[in-house]
Write a structure and sequence with these properties.
The protein contains four helices and two strands, in the order ααββαα. It is mainly α.
Length: 68
């Protein structure tokens, strides 16, 4: 996944994605290399993002519950 694609999906500048991804990488939250993002600490990532993540996740789970 390129930074350009992430920027387009989020409606932000590519430079913003570069800055945030770099910060997350320095903090040990993600590893980002050659278009691959590896989440190293989901708990820290969720703590760092805005409260909108929880709202979107709840709605997603409500609309598309896991099978079984």
């Amino acid at each position: 996944m390129t930074q350009e694609l992430i920027a387009n999906m989020l409606g932000v500048r590519r430079e913003s994605v570069t800055e945030v991804a770099g910060n997350f990488q320095r903090e040990g939250i993600i590893r980002y290399s050659r278009g691959r993002i590896t989440v190293l600490s989901r708990r820290r990532l969720e703590q760092t993002v805005c409260e909108c993540y929880a709202v979107v996740k709840r709605e997603y789970d409500r609309l598309l519950p896991p099978p079984g």
